Each structure stands twice: as C-alpha cells, then as structure tokens.
C-alpha cells in the first residue's frame, strides 16, 4: 500500500486529490496538512511514502518543507512531489534542489496523478526529458556551483557515464541500452552514484550533474 500525505492550503484541492487517490486499491491518503510546517510534522509522525506538497503556502512554503524533509534522515523514505499552479518555474527548480522528486501541475489528469504517485513511491524522478532540458537551460548556473572534482571524484568511469545519461533524461532501461549493460547493472551504477553524491533521488542527481559541471547546459 502506498501511503500519501497531502499538504496544501486549499481544502477543496486536498479533498479533490483525496477522492481521486482513495479509490485506488494500492493507495491510501493517510493525512492532510494546510501548510508546510504542519506537513513536516505529519511526515515525521506518519512516515508516508509520498508527500504531495503545494509550493506556495502560508507559514512554511513547499520549498522549505521539502528542505526540512530532505535533511531529516528519519524521513529518507519520504518522496516529495511538489504541486504548482504554474508549471515549471524557478520556484520548482529550487524545490528540486531542496530534494523534491519532481513536480505536478494542479490541473493534472486524474490518471496522471495516480501514475505520478506510483512513480514517486518507487523512487523514480518525475522529470520528463523535455522538462530536464528546460530545467538545465534556464536555471542551472554557469560556471558550475560545485567544482567537478570535489563533487564527482569518487565516481567510477561507468558511474559517471550513467549519471551523464540520467542527466539527459534517460530511464534506467535507456541507460542500460546506451551503455550496453543490463537494466539491473544500470540501476546499480545509478544508485551507487546517488549514494556517493548524497542525492536523495534521480531529480537531485540531475541537478548535481549540471551544477558540478559533469554535464553542461546547452547554449541558448
């Protein structure tokens, strides 16, 4: 059973999302919060698999709530998905840097919401290649924020190659095909790179790859 926490200051949206998720036999909404501070407290108490968190809320916003969850080792199994009205923007990028696994626009189709929750619960990033390109093209700083040597020096050559492919938006299966290895081996390379770089998930791995200079954003 996938346990979901909803955090949004709009009761109507929370009730709508709850209604959509509760009809699924493998998903359970365990609690609702009205702001980021309440959401973090609920996450600590209930340890949900997925936390759907609005990016703009009173008291504590979604970026800070994500940062607090990501910084708490006891919450390492909580996958944050940011909810936004506006699509991808700088706020979403900062939430990804803070540790979010991805984001959803609030007018998402019901079936896409359910799919996204399942994807996040598996630990995969909710970042399509087109979104990844937009992310790196608009919001990743140049020159690199983190010197490549200090951030990536512990990676093997194969792990670096896998991270590079992930940063271009490839799935584990696509990484496996590009590297001529099995999907399990590709997953192992990605997971080891995440561990060495202290990335919570693939979304953070993408950000690290660009901010360290391993991969560079395309010129506009």
From TrEMBL:
The keyword Protein transport does not apply. Residues 148-213 form the HTH luxR-type domain. Residues 3-121 form the Response regulatory domain. It comes from the Bacteria. The modification 4-aspartylphosphate is found at residue 54. One of its GO terms (molecular function) is DNA binding. Keywords: DNA-binding, Phosphoprotein, Transcription, Transcription regulation. The keyword Protein biosynthesis does not apply. InterPro entries: CheY-like_superfamily (IPR011006), NreC/VraR/RcsB-like_REC (IPR058245), Sig_transdc_resp-reg_C-effctor (IPR016032), Sig_transdc_resp-reg_receiver (IPR001789), Tscrpt_reg_LuxR_C (IPR000792), WalR-like (IPR039420). GO terms for biological process: phosphorelay signal transduction system; regulation of DNA-templated transcription. Pfam families: GerE, Response_reg. Coiled coil: none annotated. This is LuxR family two component transcriptional regulator. It comes from Stackebrandtia albiflava.
